[in-house]
Amino acid sequence: MSIEEQVPAALLDEASEALEELAGVLAGGQTLNDALQQLVESASRVIPDAENVSVTVVGPEGASTEAWTDERVVEIDRKQYATGDGPCLEASRTQRPVRATVEGGREKWPEFAAAAERAGVRAYLSAPIVVEDDVIGSLNLYSSDDRAFDPFDEALLRLFVTAASTSITGFRRYERSRRLVEHLQRALESRGEIDQAKGVLMAAHGVDAEEAFTRLVGESQRHNTKLRDVARNLLASVRGPSDEADRTDRDQTGDR
């Protein structure tokens, strides 16, 4: 019997609607944290045995919980981060879903088991989140029933993991694009100031554009200063105080 035959159509419809809502959050230009929070709340509502849900993100500085449905269960993951082991970290390392219970985890992950028991959690299921072929964390489910999480729960979990991967990939690409645009804007601003500084040197010393640029580069190397800063300092030195004040006012107005 297929999963579709085992589960009421209404539940599948609810899962589909939840994923559409998540797509709406992304399209609305919300932050990554907004998208991840929407993700855990939707997963908690749709996956039958998931009473609470969290997202673990593993980065250069270690693991952290970035979204959750109840603060009480976050400590379960923090204990895993502190010891460097546990089902959520194992799911990330092995790139496979990992199911754990308090009873089954007492020997293998004693700190995890103790924290889970204190929070009233008896069963725990983690699945790795893979972004651009890089495992960056896990999506974690919690239940007070040690029999929780059947194959259908795991199938739904995979859907939400895919949604999480898509969310993070989209935001990574957006951030890369945003940084590139900012870099290009700064480069254009710097180019304009460098050209103005070259013009000042050409007029003051009767040199051509190539020689003026060579002098700016030499000043940059002697003082270990960025070329654009050398150009700005030169322009500031030939501007009157009132001109510089007007320029500062314009910059600040533009920032606003």
Automatic annotation (TrEMBL):
Keywords: Transcription, Transcription regulation. Pfam families: ANTAR (PF03861), GAF_2 (PF13185). InterPro entries: ANTAR, GAF, GAF-like_dom_sf, GAF_ANTAR, WH-like_DNA-bd_sf. Residues 174-235 form the ANTAR domain. GO terms for molecular function: RNA binding. The keyword Transcription regulation applies. It comes from the Bacteria. This is GAF domain-containing protein. It comes from Saccharothrix ecbatanensis.
